[in-house]
Design a protein that fits this description.
The structure is a homodimer. Chain A is built from 17 helices and 9 strands. Chain A is of the alpha/beta class. Chain A has a single domain, classed as TIM Barrel (Alpha-Beta Barrel), CATH 3.20.20. In chain A, the strands form 2 sheets. A 7-stranded parallel beta sheet of chain A has the order 1-4-5-6-7-8-9. A two-stranded antiparallel sheet of chain A has the order 2-3. The longest helix of chain A has 25 residues.
Amino acid sequence: MLQNDLILRAAKGEKTERTPVWLMRQAGRVLPEYREVRAKMGGFKELVKTPEFAAEVTIQPVDILGVDAAIIFSDILVIPEAMGLDYQMVESRGPWFEKTIQSLEDVDKLRIANGVDDLHYVCEAIRLTKQGLANRVPLIGFAGAPWTILAYMVEGSGSKTFSKAKRFLYTQPEAAHALLEKIAQSTINYLRAQIGAGADMIQLFDSWAGILSPEQYKTFALPYIAKITDAIYTHVPVTVFAKDAHFIRKELGALTSCHTVGLDWTMDARESRALIGEHKTLQGNADPCLLYADFKTIEHGVAEMLNAFGPHKHIANLGHGLYPDLNKDNVRCFVDAVKNHTW
Amino acid sequence: MLQNDLILRAAKGEKTERTPVWLMRQAGRVLPEYREVRAKMGGFKELVKTPEFAAEVTIQPVDILGVDAAIIFSDILVIPEAMGLDYQMVESRGPWFEKTIQSLEDVDKLRIANGVDDLHYVCEAIRLTKQGLANRVPLIGFAGAPWTILAYMVEGSGSKTFSKAKRFLYTQPEAAHALLEKIAQSTINYLRAQIGAGADMIQLFDSWAGILSPEQYKTFALPYIAKITDAIYTHVPVTVFAKDAHFIRKELGALTSCHTVGLDWTMDARESRALIGEHKTLQGNADPCLLYADFKTIEHGVAEMLNAFGPHKHIANLGHGLYPDLNKDNVRCFVDAVKNHTW
């Protein structure tokens, strides 16, 4: 049914004619066409909550960049909001929560999100996107991993150290587990709703994975990721991207409900393969800053990356989202270089 | 001559009666006594540049926390300033450079710092500290590693991604190498002056090591670290702390002019020992946020850390600097737990 299902086949470990490619934050400010739509809206959250516009910007990179998948335009913080903790997206400063979670009593007041009702606008955006894509490429749904969501709910904003969120783990471990459980249940509901609306695969983003110690990660992060992936992996392929968490690659390799492990650019391809094992697909992992370079340097970097990962069980991507000041032509050069690579 | 030379002996790989301990940022806002001195001064830079006060706050943690070494109170950005690129320390926002380095022409205009003349105030602070310490414990001198210094000189301030600095590496590699060479030469002069003034050991801080890819790190960071350590290691023990650069541990293990490798809390002790080899001393690596916990949890965390590293070739520390809002009593608990550990 899909005209291009390279990514789905790669995620399932099947051999593919060429390495599929998409880019984190491909629907975003790097595209002038996105900025035009964005300018029509009052703010980032309004765009997220307006399905027809969210669908439009989701499809743009498929047309403009030629990527092998779309990823629904949304935000990981729709989950705290659906659980009863509202946030604002402050221009050029990031998310900000008026109320934060500081105790077990605060956790008890939160509700478990019902994906279909509380996050109907995301499901509607997925349905519209699927119509617009008309089976050209698969659509990726996503959510934040529970630790990253907790980090924002406790810290109340972005942070270099997330020391308030980490203090919460050290000083109130029971409240932390209660919160993580509620987030995980909400996320399962949410992702099932996304799959029901048409998402063809799912990625969990653990953006702040790398600030936990290996022990903390095994206690407060990985078990809740496993709950989520266990609940959905029989329906669609699942990717886990634990940014900067070099120390958890071996354990992610052993997580049977995860098909693909995302890698950042500090993680060597061959070392990661050895740690993760032969049975997983790996995703990544070019440095986004490579795309500031000239075309020749980008093409050379892409060839090195592809040769390091090999021709199968690899989905080409960056090791982080596109930076907004990158040039669209350089991004396109990256995508073309992957697609034109000869082994 | 020194009454307590545990750290020096541990750094040289000798067996010690117990594991020595000090803390990054031990001279700082975590101590009320520091905040009192700081309040007398116009600003952070004034404190750095006033040797008698810099010496006073350097000695404070030896008296108050009971650590096994002092580290001279200063800033890694004294080097850019000594090379001709002035900076301001903006309260609660960090460093800010009015002019930044954007081209080879900018690099050519910089001078190579002469440690004894351009940084006489640091040398004077070291001499006063040595007098005040009266041989109780060793004094650690330090500098930033060249990549981290370049990052600030090009970016002009702190940053989540340092994408301008990394773009400089990708688009102007020759200018980057010229700048790194000038920084390395300046740093060698500076550290020789620190050693001449009385520093008993030296630590290089590569605070932004972890945002480079392994390849970029081997090209733009490690060779310049090696130049510096090669120039000083016959005089005093040298520690290299490449924060977040999990991928470079094996290469640091092979750097013969480095005695001690600093580890952050994401780096497992046993895995790091296997990567780095048996001949180096390891330093670290508790999560600073452990010190938010109650005493029992801190003591348990210390025991786990010490048992993981073993009784020799280990200098206990955190995996990053103390956070300013930590409680002094908790910090003291950490130090005492190391000193009272029984094997």
